[in-house]
Amino acid sequence: MDTLILLLFVFVLATLLGFELISKVPSQLHTPLMSGANAISGITIIGGLLAAGSSMQTAGMLVPVLGFLALVLAAINVTGGYLVTARMLAMFGKNRKKGEP
Fold first, then answer.
1. How far is CA 97 from each of CA 7, 89, 94, 100, rounded to the nearest angstrom?
2. Between these two residues, 26 and 49, which has the higher pLDDT value?
3. What's the whole-number mean pLDDT along residues 11-15?
4. Model confidence, pTM
5. pLDDT at residue 96, rounded to an integer
6. Any idea of the CA torsion for 16, 18, 20, 26, to the nearest 10 degrees?
7. Three-state SS string across 30-66, please?
């Protein structure tokens, strides 16, 4: 029980600290920092895969369900981050007329 309270405390503290830090980031730095967040979400995907594949006999039903949820949310975050980054990089490319390769 003490471990659960400690983990919950760390989660709430990390959430509040993350919100405070992200709200202070200027808009010019938001997209480059998203690349770093994509790397972190990639690590979350690996952890989600491990948790989702864990045995229900030893871990119960909660761990695989949370692992699958983490896997889905991290995959959405990575995909969206890469789409936004690609769009930003396209803004710096050559101006092409429609129909040009």
1. 54, 17, 10, 6
2. 49
3. 93
4. 0.61
5. 60
6. -170
7. HHHHHHHHHHHHHHHHHHHHHHHCCCHHHHCCHHHHH
Sequence ranges of the domains in the chain: 56-92
Q: Measured between alpha carbons, how far is residue 31 from residues 2, 28, 46, 57, 72 in Å? A: 39, 7, 23, 42, 22
Q: Give pLDDT tens digits for 42-73.
A: 888 898 888 888 776 676 788 888 889 989 99
CA distance linking residue 88 with residue 83, whole number of Å: 9
Of 43, 100, 52, the closest CA to residue 77 belongs to: 43
Residue that the structure tokens 């979400």 belong to = 41
